[in-house]
Amino acid sequence: MPGTSPLPLSLQSKLQKARALPSWQRIVNNLNLIRQLLLVFFILRFVQRSFYFLRGHGVLGSIAMVYHAAHKQLYRTFLSLPGVRSKVDKQVESARKDLEAKLTGFDEKVNRYKQLPKEPWTQEQLKTELEQLAAIKRTRWEEGKVSGAVYHGGEELLEIQAEAMKLFSVSNPIHADVFPAVRKMEAEIVAMVLSMFNAPGYGAGATTSGGTESILMACLSARNKARTERGVRYPEMIIPSTAHAAFHKAGQYFGITVNLVHCPGPDYTVPIHKVRRFINPNTILLVGSAPNYPHGNIDNIPALSRLAIQHKLPLHVDCCLGSFLMPCLAKAGFPSPYADEGGFDFKLPGVTSISVDTHKYGFAPKGNSVILYRNKQLRQYQYFISPDWSGGVYGSPSIAGSRPGALIAGAWASMMAIGEKGYIDATHKIVSTRITIQNAIKEHPVLKEALTVMGDPMVSVIAFESVDKAIDIYDVADAMSAKGWHLNSVQDPPGLHVAVTLPMTKDGAVDSLIEDLVEIIKKEKERVAQQAQAGTLIEARKKGNQAQLYGVAGSLPDKSIVERIVVAYLDTLYLA
Ligand SMILES: *Cc1c(COP(=O)(O)O)cnc(C)c1O
């Protein structure tokens, strides 16, 4: 009936008009609507991401980041200016020449082989050549002057490892049916390490080729878990700035954004409230180190565990470096971290994975590490499965396909030969030596004025920095190198790191470290005082390697030059 329509006339006519539109125009209208919806969607996502960014970095932090990015870009542009660029190229080239001379030059005469020998070598020939290779001048780590690198080095253990590896040199755990003993040994290594770290009965794990692979696996598992269970497509993880570089590698390899939480002094552990601010729906993993590589400090794992539980997130504890020392601390008579708050391992309910390097303080041959998970489901997220590969149904637990069974035999034999008692003894020697160095820095009249320990180390690593930057710590590093020491420079802030291993616990080694350090600090202080008196009249001395590299790196807004030098270094490794 006319006049009884519930709609006002104007609207009715509009609707009729709309109906009257030709179909192509209706399609265009719909497309416009979709376009507008998409625009709104992207704007919302941008706003959301900006909000998470701002909350994570803070307003000032975000401004600082934008400023640094601009500064970096300007510097990059400056570096690419024609005149500047050729200068930079020249510098990089000269660094490459230095590296080549240092890495591929030998004091003794050596033969170089770039093609297979036409005729097979005789045993005699081989033996002679191998002995000559072994005699090439190298760092005498046996004297205990090297930080890290060789963790045990005892003759007897080397014999045991060689024997075990020889027995299983052809074995490959990818063929579990062909090599049943290697499968058994691998499972037992994992079981023993799970038990050392207080895993529940349903805990699981896998052996890997090293700490880096263990960390890669933990990050991959967390990423796959978040993707499967929560549909996370833009994964992010939150790591302390002191966490190992392997986490950045995982970020690059697996497309995970790395949110770095700065760890300021004086304690240099990760500030928990800052970790919390970075948590958002894309977060897939929290990380703490026990201890970290740069300073040997242990993050507040109990607090991270509480945060992980509260936000239902996985928490990885990097115990690569701590390895077998960590579970032995208490038994060796030292304080164990956070003992009255649940410790640092699976006893804390929020800890979901732990990486443990059997090839560090587990004293196994290099190429061994273990990744532990709270349960089998987490381990399954690292598996690779290809059911329809033309070569057959395929599955492998970690990165490698074929793997060296010999290394598993070497690790298993080391663990059995050393036993709990052996690891406790080693922990006692190593941690005592670290404490000796620490006490010297805190109490020796010369050292205590010039150096301060970074944080509160509890295990094998100690790092120190220069008080008020009065002396350049990298000059100290270079002077120590000149005396045959191989210590490690850390940056941001500048420091020097020593990882005590068994060779350094030998009689006299640590005393000579302290003596050399005292002598060098005295000289450095005198030099700095002289320079201050003479003003600019005295010409700055030529800087050593460490001071040059880190001095330059620290002062540059953009590290592209450093990156180019690293590329040159890596290239040099493959010069035959
Ligand atoms: C050594 C180390 C790693 C990685 O170990 P690699 O075996 O060299 O791959 C990871 N985290 C920490 C704290 C380490 O010291």
TrEMBL record:
<keyword id="KW-0746">Sphingolipid metabolism</keyword>
<keyword id="KW-0663">Pyridoxal phosphate</keyword>
<dbReference type="InterPro" id="IPR015424">
    <property type="entry name" value="PyrdxlP-dep_Trfase"/>
</dbReference>
<dbReference type="InterPro" id="IPR015421">
    <property type="entry name" value="PyrdxlP-dep_Trfase_major"/>
</dbReference>
<feature type="modified residue" description="N6-(pyridoxal phosphate)lysine">
    <location>
        <position position="360"/>
    </location>
</feature>
<comment type="similarity">
    <text>Belongs to the group II decarboxylase family. Sphingosine-1-phosphate lyase subfamily.</text>
</comment>
<keyword id="KW-0443">Lipid metabolism</keyword>
<comment type="pathway">
    <text>Sphingolipid metabolism.</text>
</comment>
<dbReference type="InterPro" id="IPR015422">
    <property type="entry name" value="PyrdxlP-dep_Trfase_small"/>
</dbReference>
<comment type="pathway">
    <text>Lipid metabolism; sphingolipid metabolism.</text>
</comment>
<keyword id="KW-0812">Transmembrane</keyword>
<dbReference type="GO" id="GO:0030149">
    <property type="term" value="P:sphingolipid catabolic process"/>
</dbReference>
<dbReference type="GO" id="GO:0005789">
    <property type="term" value="C:endoplasmic reticulum membrane"/>
</dbReference>
<dbReference type="GO" id="GO:0030170">
    <property type="term" value="F:pyridoxal phosphate binding"/>
</dbReference>
<keyword id="KW-0472">Membrane</keyword>
<dbReference type="Pfam" id="PF00282">
    <property type="entry name" value="Pyridoxal_deC"/>
</dbReference>
<dbReference type="InterPro" id="IPR050477">
    <property type="entry name" value="GrpII_AminoAcid_Decarb"/>
</dbReference>
<dbReference type="GO" id="GO:0008117">
    <property type="term" value="F:sphinganine-1-phosphate aldolase activity"/>
</dbReference>
<dbReference type="GO" id="GO:0019752">
    <property type="term" value="P:carboxylic acid metabolic process"/>
</dbReference>
<keyword id="KW-0256">Endoplasmic reticulum</keyword>
<keyword id="KW-1133">Transmembrane helix</keyword>
<protein>
    <recommendedName>
        <fullName>sphinganine-1-phosphate aldolase</fullName>
        <ecNumber>4.1.2.27</ecNumber>
    </recommendedName>
</protein>
<dbReference type="InterPro" id="IPR002129">
    <property type="entry name" value="PyrdxlP-dep_de-COase"/>
</dbReference>
<keyword id="KW-0456">Lyase</keyword>
